[in-house]
What we know:
This protein is mostly helical. It has one domain (2-79). It is built from 3 helices and no strands. It is elongated.
Amino acid sequence: MGIALWMTCAASVFFAIRLVRFGRPEGWIRELFTVVIGALVLGGVGTALDFGGWNELDWRAGLFVLFGCVALAGVLRICLPPRHRGSA
């Protein structure tokens, strides 16, 4: 159940950052890939830090993955060039 919590956090972060237009890159695949892979890595780190595990729910692991994915998405938006003003 812990891995389902990580993926739920990743999905909520992905949909939340797609609503923010500032700095949004042209494609959404990079953001989705970054958030999902980041959630898996951060979930593994959270397991190593004893924030639950991949098969048990723990609110600390959920918050760790949620805030970590938000930070990763922010770094991605800072590093990638934004879309041009003229494109929709």
